[in-house]
Specification:
The protein has about 140 residues and is of the alpha+beta class. The chain has 2 helices and 6 strands.
Length: about 140
């Protein structure tokens, strides 16, 4: 039994690391309920085209007229590139309509679609955060 202890310890460490890595990429906290779906219009204030997750920040007004900034998370830059997104697809100041799947009660959502003022649609690749009912 003693000679198996080092092997069991290594397996436990490896599994613990795998769980942490998987948890980092979990999308379970984004709502997939249609009632929570968001569609906002606003101005791009920041566009981070990067890995492991690209981020889009959009300034808009809330129901009380207060200026707020929504953050939309998406897939890595390489995945977005396959769908036609580039680092130049969005610029600070662009007027956009953004649709996504939020964390309820927060100004943070998974990116579903961006429609630019000229009608250009940017659709990221589906992920585990994309609800089955979503059909842009």
């Amino acid at each position: 039994m003693r000679r198996w202890l080092p092997i069991l310890a290594l397996v436990a460490i490896a599994l613990g690391g795998a769980v942490k890595a998987f948890a980092h990429h979990s999308t379970g906290y984004y709502s997939k309920e249609q009632k929570d779906f968001v569609r906002i219009q606003g101005k791009v204030v920041r566009w981070e085209y990067r890995s492991p997750h690209s981020q889009l920040y959009v300034e808009t007004t809330d129901k009380d007229g207060k200026v707020v900034v929504w953050r939309f998370e998406s897939t890595p830059a390489a995945w977005l590139l396959r769908e036609g997104f580039t680092k130049d697809s969005l610029s600070v100041g662009d007027q956009v309509t953004v649709e996504g799947f939020p964390i309820p009660g927060q100004l943070f959502a998974w990116l579903g679609k961006v429609t630019k003022q000229d009608g250009t649609r940017l659709l990221p690749q589906r992920s585990t955060a994309t609800p089955d009912w979503w059909n842009p």
